[in-house]
Design a protein that fits this description.
27% of the residues lie in helices and 20% in strands. The protein is an alpha/beta fold and 474 residues long. The strands form 5 sheets. It has a 6-stranded mixed sheet, covered by helices on one side. Strands 10, 12, 13, 14, 15 and 16 form a 6-stranded mixed sheet that branches. Keywords: FAD, Flavoprotein, Oxidoreductase. Its cofactor is FAD.
Length: 474
């Protein structure tokens, strides 16, 4: 059995550690680095092969940061109250305010801490994503981020084992005793003084998705890693962890229906929804496409699509929208007439034409400006389009088929500000700490705002690693 550096590992290499970190993405890596900062010996188990390491984090681009003034990577200022209001709005108030504000305040130090490990950032982002003031973008994206963290972890002496699938956690009351881990087909018993669980949600487990959603989930696509099977989450629940979150809630966006089942990543997202209309397979609109800026509303569209017949939708735009959004990796269907586009998308021609005609007639005069909540709206139709409404009348016409793309689920374990796991009997787990998707449901009861998952993972990863190391030392 080899470590990440090629060193052959003995049984002692697997057993004699202060902190065991289960997971291989952003939160796990932040925990491992933070624990090493405190002098703890750390073993990190990544269930994926080395080439697929990093979990969902490898598909990310940015994290959302509070800041009081312009920085080298963020413009203007983004203060606590505005940040929290954004979180409150998208979650509909389903958030633990104390934990949310704790993350928001701690996010102010994230970019400097990350830079200390070699992470590099792009200059402040412009354009219609409206993120240059709020979100810091990693140079090279999430893959570069996790690669940088892995290199730092190796330099600092973290023992990393790939294809190490934690099957079960064994507790002694509310104390973690050991994990049963499948490594190279052999089940190993691995103990540590403290454990950080940062193994993600259950979004790649089709049986669990069906348990939550029913058969409609068979039409869902998984934007991220295929390795988030939820085994450790299930084991936490079996050991009496206090559960938080709704299993049907998660980060679910509208992605290109032609994307692969797993690991399509961010390039499969369709960002032109606010610039046109979205119809279901019957050719009918079903929601306000211009409700709010895309980074605050894109994550509702996965659930909306999931509720439509066949769990599919279609984004329809015309020539006026071209060049105003980041295109999907797949080219749009293109046609000179709406009739031709309907045929290409297998939509009922007469219904689509009626939908577009009704929409066009309802568009009111206004000044189009995609950088603000403009006054271009409809009147007299249901659903209304409240911003960026323009007639769809300038050929060529374009269409993207849409499916529900699950990024991560919100069901998890309840934690406190020190990332300690709460037990269902009201006690705190003695030596169990959570970070990342497996505890994000404490803060994200529903909805999503761009970059916040990485913020939660970074902040709670650092907290969990530090607290686990402190427990191990004592």
């Amino acid at each position: 059995m080899l470590s990440s550096t090629g060193k052959r590992l003995s049984e002692d290499d697997l057993l004699n550690h202060d902190v065991l970190v289960i997971g291989g993405g952003n939160a796990a890596l932040c925990a491992a680095l933070s624990a090493r900062e405190q002098g703890a010996s750390v073993l990190l188990l990544e269930s994926a092969p080395r080439k697929w390491r990093g979990g969902n984090s490898s598909h990310t681009r940015n994290l959302r940061c509070m800041h009081r003034e312009p920085t080298d990577v963020l413009s203007d200022a983004y203060l606590e109250e505005e940040f929290f209001e954004d979180v409150w709005r998208v979650t509909g108030g389903q958030t633990n305010e104390e934990l949310a504000r704790h993350v928001i305040r701690a996010s102010e130090t994230c970019t400097d801490w990350m830079k200390g490990y070699g992470v590099r950032f792009q200059p402040s982002l412009g354009g219609t994503l409206h993120l240059g003031r709020t979100n810091a973008f990693f140079l090279g994206g999430g893959k570069a981020l996790v690669n940088t963290y892995y290199q730092a972890a190796e330099r600092m002496g973290v023992t990393i084992v790939y294809e190490a699938d934690a099957e079960q956690l064994v507790f002694d009351g509310s104390r973690f005793d050991h994990a049963l881990v499948n490594i190279n087909g052999s089940l190993r018993k691995i103990s540590a003084r403290a454990v950080v669980v940062a193994s993600g949600g259950f979004e790649s487990n089709q049986a669990w998705l069906e348990e939550a959603w029913g058969e409609v989930s068979r039409n869902f696509l998984i934007r991220g890693t295929r390795f988030n099977q939820g085994k450790v989450l299930r084991s936490l629940i079996d050991n009496g962890a206090k559960v938080i979150g709704d299993p049907t809630q998660g980060h679910a966006v509208a992605i290109d229906a032609r994307a692969p089942k797993y690991d399509g990543g961010i390039v499969t997202r369709v960002d032109c929804v606010s610039l046109g209309i979205v119809v279901n397979r019957e050719g009918k609109r079903f929601y306000d496409e211009g409700e709010d800026f895309w980074p605050k509303r894109y994550a509702i569209w996965g659930r909306l699509i999931a509720k439509q017949p066949g769990q599919i939708g279609y984004s329809i735009t015309d020539a006026k929208a071209q060049g105003r959004f980041m295109p999907s990796v797949f080219p749009a269907e293109k046609a000179d007439t709406l009739e031709e586009l309907a045929v290409k998308l297998d939509l009922p021609v007469a219904t689509l034409l009626e939908t577009v005609e009704t929409f066009n007639a309802a568009v009111q005069p206004g000044t189009f400006d995609h950088s603000v909540l403009d006054d271009c709206r409809t009147q007299g139709i249901t659903p209304e389009k409240t911003h960026w409404a323009q007639r769809i009348d300038q050929p060529p016409f374009y269409g993207y088929p849409l499916r529900t793309g699950i990024t991560f689920t919100y069901l998890g374990g309840e934690v406190d500000k020190k990332a300690r796991l709460s037990m269902a009997d009201g006690s705190q787990a003695e030596n169990v700490f959570l970070a990342g998707e497996v505890m994000a449901g404490n803060i994200l009861g529903q909805g999503y705002v761009a970059g916040f998952g990485m913020t939660i993972g970074t902040v709670f990863g650092r907290i969990a690693g530090e607290e686990a190391a402190r427990h191990a030392a004592n």
